[in-house]
Amino acid sequence: MVERTVADGFRLSDEFFARVEPLLPKFKRSKKGGRPRLEWRPVLDGIFFVLRTGCQWKAMPPEFGSGSGVHNYFQLLVKRGLFTKLWKVALEEYDELQGIDWKWQSMDGAMSKAPLGGEKNREKPHGSWQARYETLAAGGGSWRALVSRRQRCQHA
Q1: Which end of the chain is less crowded, N or C, counting CB atoms within 10 A of the terminal residue's CB?
Q2: Among residues 92, 35, 106, which one has the least CA distance to residue 66?
Q3: Of 36, 14, 15, nearest to 27 (Cα)?
Q4: Reported pTM
Q5: pLDDT tens, 99-137?
């Protein structure tokens, strides 16, 4: 048994897991043997831990399983549309409980001027000079590197 190091606040509630469990894929045991599948409860705890904290998969606590293993299960669930189903169920349930004003909806976002963006129609300095040196030399490198290499190779 792996020692628990993560606070219970980061774990899924029993009620939530009971509602998600029927949506999870069922796997049969392979007749060829091999490594057994991970249990869904710690895998889902690990997936939601990473989604909530933003940590890397390999940096999540080992009590959820290996980072690469949990990430593989996450990719499988994304492919099967589990998170889209959960989102739809949550929206419908929230609509029943609180009500959603479907006439007015917007995406989360922000509009602001780009930093150091400059004005919209300003003149671009050295535009033609820069474009001249963007072509590639025959060997795949830039002409600028080729020219500087020639200058270095010239002997006095």
Answers
A1: C
A2: 35
A3: 36
A4: 0.59
A5: 888 777 666 666 676 666 656 666 666 655 555 555 555
